[in-house]
From TrEMBL:
Domain SGNH hydrolase-type esterase, first and last residues per copy: 52-216
Pfam families, per database record: Lipase_GDSL_2 (PF13472)
GO terms, molecular function: nucleotidyltransferase activity; phosphatidylcholine lysophospholipase activity
Species of provenance: Alistipes dispar
Name the UniProt record assigns to this protein: Acylneuraminate cytidylyltransferase
Length: 239
């Protein structure tokens, strides 16, 4: 009997320790990535003209082509793996408080990949629309960007993004075309291959752009920046 009680007490202690460890992890987990750009944002001395809000596709853009951002006074606020829910949480800190003229929003890939578990396409759409509405309310013009093509996610092979991405893009495009102050930016059409993946010359694995892929995106987004602002500025792009 004493042995049984001692074993039971040991199990309770272990369970408590496990809960304590999990709670400790939660205290330090930055779910929405609010720490990622907090110091960079505080150190800004000039308001950026355009903030690019996104996930790894946006983050990779800066890694491949840093001068596209630096020479044009653009701010890259992409965090790899992020879903629209996480972007929405950090939108005020990483976009609104920087007071840009324009925000380019590229979101949805990781929702489709279920990086944070299942989310209905309608909820992803609503998150992205909420970011657009927050921007507009704060006097920021919106470039709403299509989800880039992918036929396969190597980290989530059971998902079939080629069937889902066009559906989300259709929803986003219809919203942009019906909404004042929101300009549609179509990366998907010129980058998609016959197999519905990103064309091989633009991506090493069919879903993330390489340097050539980002050149295509720059040639598409720069005219959109001028159009939504009513300007004809010559921006630096990689040739």
């Amino acid at each position: 009997m004493k042995k049984l009680i001692a074993t039971f007490a040991l199990c309770l202690f272990a369970a408590g320790a496990s809960r304590g460890q999990n709670y400790s992890d939660m205290l330090y987990r930055d779910w929405a990535g609010l720490r990622a750009f907090a110091q960079v944002n505080r150190n800004l001395t000039v308001e950026p003209e355009v903030v690019f809000m996104g996930n790894s596709i946006t983050e990779g853009w800066f890694n491949y082509h840093p001068d596209f951002f630096k020479k044009n006074n653009f701010a890259c606020r992409g965090i790899g793996g992020q879903t629209s829910s996480e972007m929405l949480v950090r939108f005020r800190q990483d976009v609104i408080e920087l007071r840009p003229r324009v925000v380019a929003i590229l979101a949805g890939t990781n929702d489709i990949a279920m990086n944070n578990g299942y989310i209905a396409l309608e909820n992803t759409f609503q998150n992205i629309v909420s970011m657009c509405e927050l921007a507009k309310f704060n006097g920021i013009k919106v470039l709403l960007c299509s989800v880039t093509p992918a036929a396969y996610f190597n980290w989530r092979p059971q998902v079939e993004p080629a069937k889902i991405i066009p559906k989300l893009n259709k929803m986003l495009r219809e919203y942009a075309e019906a909404t004042e102050g929101v300009e549609w930016v179509d990366y998907f059409t010129p980058m998609v291959g016959e197999d519905k993946a990103m064309r091989a010359e633009y991506s090493p694995e069919g879903s993330h752009p390489n340097g050539e892929g980002y050149k295509v995106m720059e040639r598409i987004v720069v005219p959109a920046i001028n159009k939504i602002q009513g300007t004809n500025k010559k921006y630096f792009i990689y040739e």
